[in-house]
Amino acid sequence: MGSEYTNSEMMTVTAARALENGTTCFVGIGLPSEAANLARLTHAPDVVLIYESGTLQTKPDILPLSIGDGELSDSALTTVAVPEMFRYWLQGGKVDVGFLGTAQIDRFANLNTTLIGDYREPKVRLPGGGGAPEIATSAGEVFITLKHSKRAFVKDVDFITTVGFGRDGKARDGVPNIGRGPSRVITDLCVMKPDPETRELVVVSLHPGVTREDVVEATGWEIRFVEQLETTPVPDENELSILRELKARTERAHSGQQE
Amino acid sequence: MAEFLSLHDAVARYVQDGSTVAMEGFTHLIPFAAGHEVIRQKKRDLTLIRMTPDLIYDQLIGAGCARKVIFSWGGNPGVGSLHRLRDAVEKGWPHPVEILEHSHAAMACAFEAGAAGLPMAVLRGYIGSELPSVNEQIRFIECPFTGERLAAVPSVRPDTSIVHAQKADRHGNVLIEGIVGVQKEAVLAASQSIITVEEIVDELDTHPNACVLPSWAIDAIAVAEKGALPSYTHGYYERDNRFYKKWDEIARDRDTFTQWLNDHVLNSAESAGGQV
């Protein structure tokens, strides 16, 4: 306790803690991958990590830069073809948690990774859907992690690449064979969960030192807070040192490549 | 039976202006050397299919080879945008490129359906997504048995698929190891196929369940040593992550890109991938 940590570390550790030991998790690249591997290296040694490149039960020693780095295949129990990954393992219902990042998210936890602006005349073209549209609907539930900002947290996304609860919060109602959807959103300021009735995201926990005003300022809609607002537990020494070692190993590996 | 050709001759014979071409490889085994040969031969009006366009299609688009791109994730993995793809889509440089975008699940299923000789793929996909509103090739059907609403997309049937692999034996049988992506499906779905390999060996020396493409399912094999760089070949060389980062600067600017293209592809002999 009492150790120094950054907002980013707070976010990663909180996201990692959300993953229970033994869970099967379909991991997105970037922040979700960092958090999922921290979980595996700390409280959840038996978490099963799956990446869309086909690597099943992978235990990378360094964080992959891309979703298909050799490290993922080298350290996996087995590697399957991409159609098998999506059809059997994801669509077949073998995944408990989908762990995603995003460029833009709205109050109903819909994700936009397609573009900013109008589809035919985009202001900014983003990479697109990738695995997310079906991870979000076939996984048992979805965790989302991203940095908090007014640009990212908007009232309505410009484009729903990946559904949270739809434009009205009801997109999953009555749909057969669909997962529960986003169950928590972890940022560098707070943790949000969907309201059980309306499905609108509400803040359930503020990170230490963060005020309600900080969150209001960084959110593009009138964000609400639950009555029993909690304070997110701080990272412990073990989590911080393992996270820092992981990032240092990763940095060394990615900068020491052949020219 | 697969015919052993030079990369030049394989591309000249199997890639025509206006062709629909899939160059696959999911981060791993991306056929850069073949892509560069397509650029050198100035193929035009190609419909390029690939789940992750990656640097290889950024280069082909910037070089003016593409008319249309069908994809499901168009970024520089772990780095950011594909600037040549964006410039073509947002500003029409060097000319406008039409895009048709899917999710990974749908494209993977579409490749598989193509390999299976089916006209379409069915999946539980695109629920609640707005992608169907911008891609008319995404439709929905009702399961005749359960009534469940399912997504349908046309299968991928390229004129030519091009993939890179570790090795071929002297009979032209090819072994693909590591992250195998949709390469097998891409080759089987296509009318014609080119496979570039690191080397030709006497024996594949493999095991019963390995991903092997038999000689009689392939049209051309060309040796392209380090032909997947800056991506990687499992068991041969690693991904050049530094080049992927460097590409961000090269591709951001039209002049820098054009200079790179002249120096490293157009005025360069048949060679390895994207080395700088």
Structure description:
The complex is a heterodimer of chains A (259) and B (276). By secondary structure, chain A is α/β, with parallel strands linked by helices. Chain A has a single domain, classed as Glutaconate Coenzyme A-transferase. Chain A is 27% helix and 23% strand. Chain B is of the alpha/beta class and 276 residues long. Chain B has one domain: 3-Layer(aba) Sandwich (Glutaconate Coenzyme A-transferase), CATH 3.40.1080.10. In chain B, the strands form three sheets. In chain B, strands 1, 2, 3, 4, 7, 11, 12, 13, 14 and 15 form a ten-stranded mixed sheet that branches. A three-stranded antiparallel sheet of chain B has the order 8-10-9, with helices on one face. A two-stranded antiparallel ribbon of chain B has the order 5-6. Chain B is globular and about 55 Å long. Classes of the chains: A alpha/beta (259), B alpha/beta (276). At the A-B interface, α3, α4 and α5 of A face α4, α5 and α7 of B.
